[in-house]
Write a structure and sequence with these properties.
Blueprint lengths: L4 H12 L5 E3 L15 E2 L8 H20 L4 E2 L3 E3 L4 H10 L8 E3 L2 E4 L3 E3 L1 H8 L4 E3 L7 E4 L1 E4 L2 E3 L2 E3 L16 E11 L9 E4 L1 E6 L3 E5 L9 H17 L8 E12 L6 E6 L1 H7 L16 E9 L5 H18 L10 H12 L1
Helix pairs in contact: 1-7, 2-7
This protein binds flavin-adenine dinucleotide (FAD).
Flavin-adenine dinucleotide (FAD) binds next to helix 1, strand 13, strand 17 and helix 7.
Length: 352
């Protein structure tokens, strides 16, 4: 369920493995948060951490994947990262020993030649080209009897890829936050001279001579999208003008959306835990006891691919490959990604 980058990547991966796939989308394909994305593809520059390892594994995998399957949609133009101030200069310099990707120093800036961006609408359309997609589809009923029954459709496996919207099941342990954001497609006097991405707080990018993408802002807290657009619009262009001269600026289009994220920023990927049955069987999980996840109760053949935060186009193809391996080959997904960590935390806080 869901035809954003999470659902489209998963559908593509499963189709490639020979499964018959149907995508149910409540609006249109790429009409949700994926439509708002830049979509910049950048590595993570920081000290080592499990999150950095995961992100850069996903970055390398997804670039290879896009090059293999959708080379015309990928603009691998490189990223020039500009330090924000003196403190940031020192911070970036301290990361140099851990930059295990291609990079070079350009004055005070850092250039990462492998970074780039991809066009969300065209990518999702291409991924779903040979897959049946039902748009504007609102399900009435989902039940499970030997297989999933969604209204008149039957499916062996069901995958929730519904972005920042409410989940179609009551899963109280899946806790997410939303960060709203705004971005523009623009052209300006000498925009054709920009040949790579630039990042300093916000990103600029040139996409195949068609447009410059400026994005994006991060508005935390419970704001609605209209309010976020209002708060962001001027500020974003003002800050952009501090990086590039925006003479004869033409705004071609503006976009707004949410990023849905967990508190630890890892996505949520894998089998969906039946929280009531698991707690009934192992009530001491609430005291922090670590019951092995193999013993948990799961909804049969129900999976989730969600909470891709600000990096959906970096994470989704990699996650989709991991999910296809789980579904077809039983290869377990790392606990850092799977719903297990969220369930444990939620269960512990029920009594603490
Ligand atoms: C301003 C902005 C800039 C961003 N820039 C970047 C970037 O540069 N690079 C990057 O990698 N990421 C970026 N992101 C993040 C990226 O957009 C998200 O991580 C990604 O789009 C999430 O994809 P998704 O498939 O999970 O969600 P979505 O794209 O929202 O897809 C979910 C789909 O599920 C559908 N749906 C919901 N409920 C149901 C239901 N019950 N039945 C059927 N369908 C349903 C929705 O209609 C929607 O189409 C940005 C986000 C924003 C807001």
């Amino acid at each position: 369920m869901g035809a954003g980058i999470a659902g489209a990547s998963t559908a593509f991966a499963l189709k490639q493995k020979g499964l018959k796939v149907l995508v149910l989308e409540k609006e249109k394909r790429c009409s949700g948060d994926s439509n708002a994305a830049g979509a910049f593809l950048s590595p993570k520059i920081s000290k080592p951490s499990p999150y950095k390892t995961y992100l850069n594994d996903a970055f390398n995998y997804s670039l290879t994947f896009y090059k293999a399957h959708f080379p015309d949609l990928l603009a691998q133009c490189g990223l020039l990262k500009l330090p924000l101030d003196e403190k940031d200069k020192k911070r970036l310099a301290s990361y140099e020993p851990y930059m295990h990707m291609k990079w070079e120093k350009r004055g005070e800036d850092y250039f990462f030649p492998e970074a780039g961006l991809i066009e969300p609408q065209a990518l999702i359309a291409a991924m779903l080209k040979d897959i049946q997609v039902l748009e504007n589809y609102s399900y009435k009923d989902i039940t499970y009897h030997d297989s999933w029954q969604i209204d008149n459709f039957r499916a062996k496996h069901l995958i929730i890829a519904t972005g920042s919207d409410a989940l179609p099941f009551d899963l109280p342990y899946i806790q997410r936050k939303k960060i709203a954001g705004y971005r523009y497609d623009v052209r300006y006097h000498d925009s054709h001279l920009l040949t790579h991405n630039i990042h300093r707080e916000l990103s600029f990018s040139h996409y195949h001579d068609e447009k410059i993408i400026i994005g994006a802002t991060h508005i935390r807290g419970d704001v609605d999208l209209e309010e976020a657009a209002y708060q962001d619009s001027e500020g974003l262009l003002k800050r952009a003008a501090e990086i590039q001269t925006l003479k004869e600026l033409q705004i071609l289009k503006s976009y707004i959306g949410h990023r849905s994220s967990t508190l630890d920023y890892f996505p949520i990927l894998g089998k969906v835990i039946h929280h009531d049955k698991t707690l009934e069987a192992y009530p001491y999980i609430k005291k922090g006891s670590k019951v092995p996840p193999q013993k948990y109760h799961y909804f049969p053949n129900l999976y989730i691919h969600n909470a891709l935060a600000s990096r959906g186009f970096v994470f989704a193809p990699y996650n989709a490959m991991l999910l296809a391996d789980l579904i077809l080959e039983g290869k377990e997904i790392d606990e850092r990604l799977s719903p297990v960590r969220l369930f444990r935390k939620w269960a512990f806080h029920l009594e603490n």
